């Protein structure tokens, strides 16, 4: 009888997402998360120095502990999609109406830019393969200097720079248009147009719905996880890892500079800045529970999806940065092409050895890894927009799905938004990390609200059966870690750009007019019945019941104070 009920539930309902995958499908969709290490492994190396491998290990450990809270609250809403922010919003709406959509909005701000940032790095890899910039030590540079010796002037470094500039393919410097606004630049250059093509390919795959996406990502995931594991393991046995590259365990004196500093305020600020940006990658496997309403058996699949995705991420987020640092050392990690991300794939290929063919193969697989992370991001962020619309947080037009069960209007919104971000990310490394830091401000805000929604749901909906119930001490640790993450943001966002924190807060505040339009203009001040039904989670609770008293308000106030104090105390 249970089997028949599950089969009936799996029959697609017109206009809604389809129950077509198990936890294994969600695992493969989330398998793009380990590739996020490629986004900031160079940047974190440039700010943490010899501490980089510990930053990654500590960050994924925090993410794994936090995931148990997310697994519990996801089980309360078997008919929702869109991830932990949707489940957390239901806890906050009883207390502060505008905080609930803030959770959803900030989660989307965090996930959506993966499309543009990933495409910008992948485009750089493609251009490096098709139109490489010669290295200063290459034979071509030496030959050019010898051929033009009679006309060259200046130091040896000046001559080398002139040779590299002369031998650089013209497409690497071409741009149709570029400009600078405030703290960022944007450019419609070759990398931008290559990135657009990659983004459209991902969109076409996503258009087939979650089952088609999971099937495609299974094969790409296998082609990516295996080489990333190779990069993480082989250097341990081929002599590429040098153990003296892990000491001394001292912060840098300044970002991207080889001089060691000390454990003073500046050193701690750089470390907290590294923890801040690492969280954007390591916590992200929570996207595995973004597909609850598309699971065939949500009660069993939800916990398995996030748990096994977490184990995969622990392995790769610990191994890859460890061998990366052991092989490159401080000087190698501070190479400009590594810090800006464009040379990370080549550096990892050299770690494994095997000659030019192996290097080219690994670079191609790293491009696939980025494509995988982009697919993961589009699948998750578009569903966040879709469910946010269904629940009354975001404009109505986003709640449309096609015949395959794909939220196409949300996907088009993602695509359009990311075309703008792509032009910024492709301009230069400063603009790239500005987008990343602003995006992560949204992620930390979402993280704070949702970790605290764990105990809020325990108070308001404690009577509701949970397919998975985390130990109470895990829920408590998660709440404490929400404040630790706020410290990372308050202290660390400035490491990446002086305006990043304030730009991130402004971006988060944009939900106020968006939600006001939906709630008061489109819905006349009333929530859709779908949201109210799920808010009651099977009980008789009313929207006005507030069993937690003043605790939610105290928590929000404490979060704001923690942010401001951390930002004031920690300085570069």
From TrEMBL:
Membrane-spanning parts: 21-45, 51-71, 104-127, 186-207, 219-243, 263-285, 305-324, 357-379, 419-446, 470-488, 500-521, 550-570
Organism: Methylovirgula ligni
Chief site of localization: membrane
Entry GO terms, CC: plasma membrane
Name of protein: Amino acid/polyamine/organocation transporter (APC superfamily)
InterPro entries: AA/rel_permease1, APC_superfamily
Record localization: Cell membrane
Membrane topology, record value: Multi-pass membrane protein
Highest taxon listed in the record's lineage: Bacteria
């Amino acid at each position: 009888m249970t089997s028949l009920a599950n089969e009936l539930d799996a029959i697609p309902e017109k206009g809604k997402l389809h129950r077509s995958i198990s936890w294994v499908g969600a695992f493969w969709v989330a398998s793009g998360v380990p590739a996020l290490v490629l986004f900031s492994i160079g940047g974190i190396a440039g700010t943490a120095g010899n501490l980089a491998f510990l930053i990654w290990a500590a960050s994924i450990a925090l993410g794994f502990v936090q995931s148990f809270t997310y697994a519990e609250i996801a089980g309360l809403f078997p008919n929702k999609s869109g991830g932990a922010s949707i489940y957390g919003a239901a806890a906050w709406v009883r207390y502060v109406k505008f905080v609930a959509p803030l959770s959803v909005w900030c989660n989307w701000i965090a996930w959506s830019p993966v499309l543009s940032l990933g495409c910008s790095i992948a485009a750089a890899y493609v251009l490096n393969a098709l139109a490489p910039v010669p290295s200063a030590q290459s034979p071509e540079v030496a030959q050019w200097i010898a051929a033009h010796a009679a006309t060259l002037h200046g130091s040896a470094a000046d001559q080398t720079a002139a040779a590299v500039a002369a031998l650089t393919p013209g497409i690497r410097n071409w741009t149709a248009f570029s400009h600078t606004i405030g703290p960022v630049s944007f450019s419609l250059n070759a990398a931008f147009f290559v990135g657009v093509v990659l983004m459209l390919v991902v969109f076409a795959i996503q258009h087939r719905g979650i089952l088609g996406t999971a099937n495609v990502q299974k094969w790409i995931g296998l082609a990516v996880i295996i080489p990333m594991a190779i990069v993480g393991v082989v250097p341990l046995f081929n002599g590429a890892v040098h153990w003296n590259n892990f000491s001394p365990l001292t912060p840098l004196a300044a970002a991207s500079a080889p001089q060691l500093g000390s454990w003073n305020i500046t050193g701690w600020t750089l470390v907290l800045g590294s923890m801040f940006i690492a969280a954007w990658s390591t916590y992200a496997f929570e996207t595995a529970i973004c597909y609850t309403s598309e699971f065939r058996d949500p009660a069993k699949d939800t916990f398995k999806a996030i748990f096994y995705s977490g184990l995969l991420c622990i392995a790769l987020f610990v191994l890859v940065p460890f061998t990366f640092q052991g092989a490159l050392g401080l000087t190698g990690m501070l190479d400009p092409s590594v810090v800006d991300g464009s040379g990370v794939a080549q550096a990892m290929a050299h770690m494994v050895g095997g000659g030019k063919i192996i290097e080219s193969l690994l670079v191609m697989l790293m491009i696939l890894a980025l494509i995988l992370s982009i697919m993961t991001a589009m699948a998750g962020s578009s569903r966040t927009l879709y469910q946010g619309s269904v629940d009354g947080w975001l404009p109505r037009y986003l709640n449309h799905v096609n015949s395959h069960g794909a939220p196409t209007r949300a996907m088009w919104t993602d695509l359009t938004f990311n075309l703008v971000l792509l032009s910024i990310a492709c301009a230069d490394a400063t603009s790239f990390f500005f987008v990343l830091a602003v995006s992560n401000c949204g992620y930390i805000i979402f993280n704070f609200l949702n970790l605290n929604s764990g105990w809020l749901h325990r108070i308001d909906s404690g009577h509701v059966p949970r397919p998975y119930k985390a130990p109470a001490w895990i829920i408590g640790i998660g709440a404490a870690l929400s404040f630790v993450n706020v410290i990372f943001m308050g202290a660390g966002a400035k490491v990446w750009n002086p305006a990043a924190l304030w730009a991130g807060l402004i971006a988060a505040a944009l939900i106020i007019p968006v939600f006001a339009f939906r709630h008061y203009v489109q819905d006349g001040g009333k929530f859709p019945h779908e949201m109210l039904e799920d808010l009651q989670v099977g009980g008789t609770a009313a929207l006005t019941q507030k069993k937690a008293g003043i605790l939610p308000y105290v928590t929000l106030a404490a979060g704001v104070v923690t942010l401001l104090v951390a930002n004031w105390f920690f300085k570069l």
